[in-house]
Amino acid sequence: MRALPGVQSVSATSILPLSGVSAPPSNFEIEGRAPAPGQVPPPGDRWAVTADYFQTMQIPLLRGRAFTDSDQVDAPPVAIIDETMARQFWPDENPIGKRLSFQRDPQGNPVWREIIGLVGQVKPGSLEREARGQCYVPHRQLSAGGMFLVVRTVHEPASLATAVRNVIRPADAELPVFRVTTMEQLVAASLAQRRFTLAALGLFAGVALLLAAVGLYGVLAYVVAQRTHEIGIRMALGAQAGDVRKMIVRQGLALALLGVALGLTGALALTRAMTSLLFEVKATDPMTFVSIPLLLMAVALFACWIPARRATKVDPLVALRSE
To answer: Where are the domains of the chain?
Structure first.
């Protein structure tokens, strides 16, 4: 398969990130840290992978080395952990060279595996679920019943699906090759429900913002129009047009500021309910809480300025007779 045109690297894994298949938690022991009586060893995700897996999936190797073809069944047992497990159990020390175990030999003794590498964290099942610590083992040392084949290409990945099947078929014609997909499609599928929910919320929020802007303009324009008689008296008594406009704008913006303050208070309380729908964005996103009030204040300024400018252009005598 590596010899196919356009293929950069090939590997296999027992669990494919974002595929909907999650690893059952495996309790493991840490050498030198025997659990207290009655205490359950800490759980973690255990993945069986072949050589070049981290290169194929572009998971960064932070320390140590990756698996190689020399990590055979008769070689010393080894493991690679992710930064979550390292941060959880070796926060102030280098985990490379430490040993852990999640299986026992026929005599009941722990089978210790030396940690040879540290890699970046991967979201296994979904972006929402907090990832447990992950432990990778060579597939030849601890095989899994079913494996996902992963292929990194320089071309469109879907275009190699037929070529991949043609490579597998001569080896075993009865071996099913199914769920051929790309990582982009897996990511999109994992986010589909969240995207739909946020799109609906965004649509309703946009409509609400539009209604708020139209309503704000209409109310302030009506209030200014109702003051045409007052404006006429002020103009007749010598008030300057600029002073009248400033007065109306100042009073209108004061009301708008009060409304924005009340709205921000309610938003800070209600957006907490959206936390589960957001990824790497806080519910109290500063950009949102700054841009939307500024937009509403701009609408309020426009709503005050246009009617006030129109009212100050009316002849005072006409304004006085309008009552």
So the answer is: 7-181, 191-321
